[in-house]
Specification:
mainly beta, Immunoglobulin-like, 2 domains, 0% helix, rod-shaped, Ig-like_fold, VWA1 protein
Length: 180
């Protein structure tokens, strides 16, 4: 009967039936990642409550949750449930082009997330359809694009590839300087 709603990558709301009142006791809430029970956290909740939001959780993690009614009147068995947080899918929110020269420029992006395996930097001259791709490790947030044509506008698209297989992209334009 204990269940979760409003699940995100870092939080969820627990709901439970009214078993206690302010006068008859309180609840002890215990929760931990199912894979790491030793990381259990405990919280006390007033008997008047029938819901609580848990925050600062890890994304894509299954939590074992136990609600223990501590009553001075009746015995209530603990209520338990399992809740899995969502994957953290945030696209790159910024793509910055800097240090532009005739044949290269520097591309950087933010934020850098643990859930990203790699970034793909796709670039090609505008107008045109001859794009090239650079693969960048997920721990890095910048790269240098080289061997470009001078005085040319490029479309640069940074795609975050998540562990879940999903992809999110953001584009920016870059211009190379005039050559010698």
């Amino acid at each position: 009967r204990l269940h979760a709603t409003d699940v995100t990558s870092s939080s969820f709301r627990l709901l439970w039936p009214k078993l206690l009142s302010q006068e008859t006791g309180y609840y002890t809430l215990e929760y931990a990642p199912a894979a790491e029970p030793a990381r259990k956290r405990t919280q006390q909740v007033s008997g008047a409550h029938t819901s609580l939001v848990l925050r600062d959780l890890a994304p894509e993690t299954t939590y074992e949750v136990a609600l223990i009614p501590e009553s001075n009147v009746h015995y209530f068995p603990p209520q338990t449930t399992r809740v899995t947080t969502l994957a953290e899918e945030i696209s790159p929110v910024q793509v910055l082009i800097s240090e532009s020269g005739p044949r290269s420029f520097h591309v950087s992006w933010a934020p850098v997330l643990d859930s990203v395996v790699s970034y793909q930097v796709l670039y090609g001259p505008l107008p045109g359809n001859s794009a090239k791709v650079l693969e960048v490790d997920g721990r890095h947030n910048s790269t240098v694009v080289e061997h470009l044509a001078p005085n040319t506008t490029y479309l640069v698209t940074v795609t975050a590839v998540y562990r879940s297989g999903k992809e999110k992209s953001l584009s920016a334009k870059a211009c190379t300087q005039e050559g010698e």
